[in-house]
Design brief:
The chain has about 300 residues and is an alpha/beta fold. It has 10 helices and 14 strands. It has 2 domains: about 120 residues, ornithine cyclodeaminase, domain 1 (2-Layer Sandwich), CATH 3.30.1780.10; about 170 residues, NAD(P)-binding Rossmann-like Domain (Rossmann fold). The strands form 2 sheets. An 8-stranded parallel β-sheet has the order 9-8-7-10-11-14-12-13. The protein has a 6-stranded mixed β-sheet with strand order 1-6-5-4-3-2.
Length: about 300
């Protein structure tokens, strides 16, 4: 068994390899070829943190990610940290333990890229990113692998962070959310807010939204109006148990993304589509398997 540190993960993992691997993992999950329970969450109340266990079993490997979320770390250290353990599926032999922080960062953005490639309009001139942290940067990198954007707008509750992020990537810092998402083809919400920051009345009728930031039954980034339309998720079971965005809006899940990816034809265009991403263990195991195979061949 080997240990793979984050520096080695960074050498082994690229969006060019990760995006198609995630696409296949999502198809396999919805088809029942990857088995996983809904994650187990433990609240660390005295430190305002969360600890989650996320196991999954695929055909060649199985494993689990142990992940922490401590929002009070912001500005001092990473808010999300993780380790992933891989085992051989045929013998149960431990293969590797690896740092999971970067894997979590990249696979989250890769999932949004897969969904955007399938569900967003073919022409996407304007991208709006709500948030200015790790996931904002990761999403920009991943989405640029599947779409071309003529204009990128960013907004953050911290205007200084928004301006710094915009300057870094050559984007426009918006004064408010309404200005950021006006006529935007693709919207990404990657804030740490537990209350709606995006109102549906500000969105264009055919906007596509990647809703990523809020995890938890009582947390949401989108209001009920924004959730009207076709709602797509990774896992119905996870969305019903864990996701405040569809639950609080009483929105009906239209499909799992893996179901749509497996169809011979993409969904009919037109109308608002919201992809609510929670992150599932199948994605982590697919990414970790990529990293492991690259690491042993270096």
């Amino acid at each position: 068994m080997i240990w793979i540190a984050e520096a080695a993960v960074r050498q082994c993992l690229t969006y060019e390899a990760l995006i198609p691997a995630i696409r296949q993992a999502l198809i396999d999950f919805s088809a029942g070829r990857i088995r996983q329970p809904v994650r187990t969450l433990l609240r660390i109340e005295e430190h305002n943190g969360w600890f989650a266990s996320m196991p999954a079993a695929a055909s060649e490997v199985f494993g689990a990610k142990l992940v922490t979320f401590f929002p009070d770390n912001a500005g001092k250290r990473h808010t999300h940290m993780a380790v992933i353990q891989l085992f051989r599926a045929d013998t149960g032999e431990p293969l590797a333990t690896m740092d999971g922080r970067l894997i979590t960062e990249m696979r989250t953005a890769a999932v949004s890229a897969v969904a955007t490639d399938l569900l967003a309009p073919a022409s996407t001139p304007v991208l709006a990113i709500l948030g200015s942290g790790v996931q904002a940067r990761a999403h920009l990198k991943a989405l640029r692998k599947v779409r071309k954007f003529e204009e990128v707008r960013v907004w953050s509750r911290n205007s200084a962070h928004a301006e710094a992020f915009a300057a870094e990537i050559g984007a426009t810092a918006a004064d408010n959310v309404r200005g950021a998402v006006r006529d935007a083809s693709v919207v990404v919400t990657v804030t740490s807010s537990g209350r709606p920051v995006l109102q549906g009345k500000w969105l264009s009728p055919n906007a596509y939204v990647n809703a990523v930031g809020a995890v938890g039954t009582d947390r949401r980034e989108l209001d009920a109006t924004a959730m009207r339309g076709r709602v797509v998720v990774e896992s119905r079971a996870a969305a019903l148990k864990e996701s405040g965005d569809p639950r609080l809006a009483r929105a009906k899940v239209w499909a799992e993304i893996g179901e749509l990816l497996a169809r011979p034809e993409p969904p009919e265009p037109g109308g608002r589509i919201v992809f609510k991403s929670l992150g599932i263990a199948a994605e982590d195991i697919a990414a970790a398997w990529l990293v492991y195979r690259a690491a042993v061949n270096m």
